[in-house]
Amino acid sequence: MLKQNAERTGGKLALHSESGKGTTVRAGFGFENIDRPALGDMAGVFLLSAIGHGNIEFIYNHVTGKVSFTIRSSELKDLFGDVPLSTAEVRQALRELIINNPEMMEASK
After folding, report:
1. What value, to the nearest 5°, has the Cα angle with vertex 84 and ends 60 and 78?
2. pTM
3. Considering all CA atoms of the chain, what is the largest pairwise distance in Å, rounded to the nearest integer?
4. Do 69 and 51 touch, CB atoms closer than 8 A?
5. Are 44 and 91 in contact (CB under 8 A)?
6. Strand 22-28 to strand 59-63: parallel, antiparallel, or no bridges (unpaired)?
7. CA distance 43 to 5
8. CA-to-CA distance for 63 and 51, rounded, in angstroms?
């Protein structure tokens, strides 16, 4: 479904996997295409993936014409230390950054 949605907007899906290294999934969507579905809760999806699979590195790369930023699950774990990523305050802070203030992520680089 991810591939179908991406291609429907003029975008594409790429999958690359190397044994012992990991798998990368990249989905690009045509931003102004009328068929582009709403992004939904990307912060929630990212955190649920990172929380549910703590031994896997998840990387969320957000790119638009105005801003781009990357969030790595390992960096979040280092940043919050002993505070679990499942904590409501952590989830809410990340959700607000991704949804409401992506320019803050760019400024922090």
Report:
1. 60
2. 0.64
3. 43
4. no
5. yes
6. unpaired
7. 19
8. 23
> Rounded to 5 degrees, what are φ and ψ at 51?
-70, -45
Alpha helices in 24-87 (DSSP H): 42-52, 73-80
- Name the residue type at position 5: N
Side chain identity, residue 106: E
Q: What are the helix (H) ranges across 1-109? A: 2-8, 42-52, 73-80, 88-99, 102-107
In 9-87, where does DSSP find H-type helix? 42-52, 73-80
How confident is the model over 16-37, as pLDDT tens digits?
A: 999 988 888 888 888 777 777 7
Q: How many CB atoms lie within 10 A of CB 50?
A: 23
Give the torsion sign (CA, 78, 81, 84, 85).
negative
CB 83 within 8 A of CB 51: no
CB atoms under 10 Å from CB of 47, counted, come to: 23
Q: Which two tokens stand for residue 1?
A: 């479904």
